[in-house]
């Protein structure tokens, strides 16, 4: 798969860079810089690698190398790198972004079909799946802790047509997040990070799918 690059200032004026392109370029650039650095040898510790990537991100932020779309993420990761050192997991973070966003970089159609595949796979894994209930207020699902996915019936019907996803769709999920992220990725989907406060179903988090896999913020990562 070819590298993703961020165009120079002149090219930027003629095209729009998506969040997906920007975050993938950052991840690949950071890992490439780490691999090419003469100061980071094969015996470098995770603390040294984290320090290098933290400096890389701080410089990228200061020099505005990447679109403003990912400025909040860069600011957060620089702060974490400086305060947590190796525990910030910056290398692992960039590897996860590179793998996950790289895998779906060419997937932008058929997301309705892909959602159906995800729901079918969830059922095979023992999930309870509900798409026949209108959710217009706080609800409680009594499922004895069994993993579950709930999608409001009206949203499910209005946002899916001819195998495509027409608009943002919310999934209320109770499950291991690593498993959920991997199942979504296996079906060619990016899910937003889980939000417990925004959920209308007790003990569930809300996750969102966006048309063309174009999330406005970092997706739920598998690792």
TrEMBL record:
It comes from Shewanella cyperi. It comes from the Bacteria. This is DUF2913 family protein. Pfam families: DUF2913. InterPro entries: DUF2913 (IPR021316).
């Amino acid at each position: 798969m070819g590298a993703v690059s961020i165009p120079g200032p002149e090219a930027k004026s003629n095209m729009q860079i998506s969040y997906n392109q920007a975050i993938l370029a950052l991840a690949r650039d950071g890992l490439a810089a780490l691999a090419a650095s003469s100061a980071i040898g094969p015996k470098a510790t995770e603390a040294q690698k984290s320090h290098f990537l933290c400096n890389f991100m701080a410089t990228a932020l200061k020099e505005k190398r990447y679109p403003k779309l990912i400025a909040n993420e860069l600011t957060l990761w620089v702060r974490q790198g400086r305060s947590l050192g190796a525990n910030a997991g910056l290398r692992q973070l960039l590897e996860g972004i590179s793998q996950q966003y790289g895998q779906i970089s060419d997937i932008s159609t058929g997301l309705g079909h892909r959602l159906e595949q995800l729901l079918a796979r969830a059922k095979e894994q023992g999930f309870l799946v509900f798409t026949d209930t209108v959710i217009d207020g706080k609800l409680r699902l009594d499922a004895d802790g069994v993993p579950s996915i709930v999608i409001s019936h009206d949203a499910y019907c209005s946002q899916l047509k001819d195998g495509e996803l027409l608009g943002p769709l919310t999934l209320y999920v109770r499950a291991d997040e690593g498993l959920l992220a991997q199942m979504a990725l296996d079906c060619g989907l990016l899910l937003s990070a889980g939000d417990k406060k925004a959920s209308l179903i007790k003990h569930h988090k809300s996750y969102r799918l966006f048309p063309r896999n174009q999330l406005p913020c970092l997706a739920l990562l598998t690792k």
